From TrEMBL:
Gene3D superfamilies: LmbE-like. It comes from the Bacteria. Residues 90-104 have a biased composition (Basic and acidic residues). InterPro entries: GlcNAc_PI_deacetylase-related, LmbE-like_dom_sf. This is LmbE-like protein. Pfam families: PIG-L (PF02585). GO terms for molecular function: hydrolase activity, acting on carbon-nitrogen (but not peptide) bonds, in linear amides. Residues 84-104 are annotated as: Disordered.
Length: 223
C-alpha cells in the first residue's frame, strides 16, 4: 500500500515536477511510488547511445533517479512515446509515429496499479499537460479516469496558470540537493534540463500543486 503515487508520461517528468514532493513525503514517513507510462524512446540521445538503445538507457536513468528520491515502488510501462509537433530535429530515439493519446487502454493499466497499490493520492499533470505535450495531456486524462473512486488526484502545476496552486512546497536545502542529483541522472535529456533551468529556475526549489476539489493556497504539503 502506498500513500502517494506519481504517474507521468516519461522518465525525467518525475524529477522535474515532483522530486521535492517525493523526498518530503518520504521524510514524513509516507510510502511513495513512481509509474511512468512510456520508456521515453522518442527523446534525445545526445550521442550517448544508439537510438534503438534509448528506451533501456532512459529506464536505467530513471532507476537511478528513483533510488535518490527514495521511492518504495517503481514501474515503467511500454506505451509509445509521442513527439510534440514542434519537436526539434536531431538525433533522437526511434519514435513509432504514435503516442499515449493513441492508447486509451493505458487508463485500464493505471487503474489496475491503483487497485493493487491503493495510494491515497495520485499525482500527475493537469489537463493541459503543463506544457501542452500530447503524452502529458494523455497521462492526465487517463489518471483522472483511472483514479475515480480509488484515489485523490493532485496536479503538478505552474505557479501561474489555469489550475491555481492549492499547495506550495518550498524545498529545504537537503531536498533541493537530492532533487538536483535525481535530475542529473537523466543525462540523455540534458538539453531539456538546460531549457528548464533557463525558463523556470524557481521551480527547482519551489513546487506547486493543485489538489482537485480544493481552493485557496496552503504553504506546505497536502498529505
Amino acid at each position: 500500500m502506498l500513500d502517494l503515487l506519481v504517474v507521468v508520461a516519461h522518465p525525467d517528468d518525475e524529477s522535474f515536477g515532483t522530486g521535492g514532493a517525493l523526498l518530503l513525503a518520504k521524510e514524513a514517513g509516507l510510502r511513495t511510488g513512481i509509474l511512468t507510462l512510456t520508456r521515453g524512446e522518442a527523446g534525445r540521445t545526445l550521442g550517448l547511445c544508439p537510438p534503438e538503445a534509448l528506451p533501456e538507457v532512459r529506464t536505467e536513468e530513471l532507476s537511478r533517479a528513483a533510488a535518490i528520491l527514495r521511492v518504495d515502488f517503481l514501474e515503467v510501462l511500454s506505451f509509445p512515446n509521442g513527439l510534440p509537433q514542434e519537436a526539434e530535429e536531431g538525433e533522437r530515439g526511434k519514435a513509432q509515429g504514435e503516442g499515449l493519446l493513441d492508447h486509451p487502454e493505458a487508463e485500464d493499466a493505471i487503474r489496475k496499479r491503483l487497485q493493487a497499490l491503493r495510494p491515497r493520492f495520485v499525482v500527475t499533470f493537469p489537463p493541459d499537460g503543463i506544457n501542452g505535450h500530447p503524452d502529458h495531456v494523455a497521462a492526465s486524462r487517463y489518471v483522472q479516469g483511472a483514479a475515480r473512486g480509488l484515489a485523490r488526484v493532485v496536479y503538478m502545476v505552474r505557479p501561474e496558470g489555469p489550475y491555481p496552486p492549492t499547495h506550495r512546497l518550498r524545498l529545504p536545502e537537503w531536498a533541493l540537493r537530492e532533487k538536483l542529483r535525481a535530475i542529473a541522472q537523466h543525462r540523455t535529456q540534458a538539453l531539456s534540463v538546460l531549457a528548464f533551468l533557463e525558463r523556470h529556475p524557481e521551480r527547482l526549489w519551489t513546487e506547486t500543486f493543485h489538489v482537485v476539489g480544493e481552493a485557496g493556497l496552503v504553504e506546505g504539503p497536502w498529505w
